Amino acid sequence: MKRFISLQLLTALLFTAVMLPSRAQQKDLPNVVILATGGTIAGTGESATGSAYTSGKVTIDAMIDAVPNIRKLANLQGEQIANVGSQDMSVKIWLDLAKRINELLQGDVDGIVITHGTDTQEETAFFLNLVVKSDKPVVLTGSMRPSTALSADGPLNLYNAVAVAASPKAKGYGVMIVMNDEIHSAHSAKKMITTPVQTFQSPQHGLLGTVIFGDITFFHKPYGRHTVNSEFSVDGVKKLPRVDIVYACADMSPDLIDLMVKAGAKGIVIAGVGDGNMNAATLEAAKQATTKGIPVVRASRVPVGAVLIHGEVNDQEYGTVASADLNPQKARILLMLALLNQPDREELQRMFIEY
User: Fold this and answer.
1) Which terminus of the chain has fewer Cβ atoms in its 10 Å neighbourhood, N or C?
2) Cα(40)–Cα(181) distance, rounded to whole angstroms?
3) Which residues are catalytic?
4) Where in the chain is the domain with CATH 3.40.50.40?
5) Bridge partners of 77?
6) Is pLDDT of 346 > 80?
7) CA–CA separation, 225 and 207 (whole Å)
């Protein structure tokens, strides 16, 4: 009799396990995949009130489980793509991310969240904005405080990022950054402050919108071509051309450009003073580089504003290209991708205007 009852109980349990959906499929919810790369959001420190911590110590599954009610927003799946501080973000990880995102978004995945350190988050976001081939939402998030800190900002940032990635309203907005209750476009977001939680701002074009405990409001569409409207692709690409950045300053040394060319740079971005300017000697070195077929892009070290075509520098005469709205680090990414297509100077200038 006991054996019969045990068999009945086992049969009932097996029937229940088969018939009931898994935790991730209990409701009719959007499907969101979280791709983890490390960063402060996955960091831990010895003190809740100290500034020292180690990035990339918390797994993505542990992060998801630590956020109350996040599974009510979407069917969630986590994948660990990398586990680094974003100062160690690499082109290889960018290419791995792009490949995985494009694979996932071809299927029944409705949105992607990427956890990422803040130091280079705007660069990863802008790269993906140019090479993701879907209009489904792709959202980067992170934190300014590690998971062990007093008032850690990571859990709510992750919750809000999932809410945006799961929302039909976010379709067509390209790649976004969601932090501190704000939604920024990959094109316009800049890390403006070293350590406070309001580090990301979009001073030129403004916020895309806000997300308050999952409640989303969009204000306007993002600036520039992106995702499905982008001409760039990294299908089959194993590496990107080397592009270096020169930081302009008073009495800067022009031989820095010569050294970069000799070291194998295929393109150079100058973080110029003011309107992408530089001293006469460096400008002449830039001209010499362009005559050798090495594109030189004039960006600016100034945080806000556009670099004007034929402004203080006659770009036609020197063979240079104005970065328009893009800061030096984003100008570098666009130039790296553009070089895959071997554009001439006029075509390259068009790209900087359109993207």
Assistant:
1) N
2) 18
3) 40
4) 243-354
5) 33
6) yes
7) 17
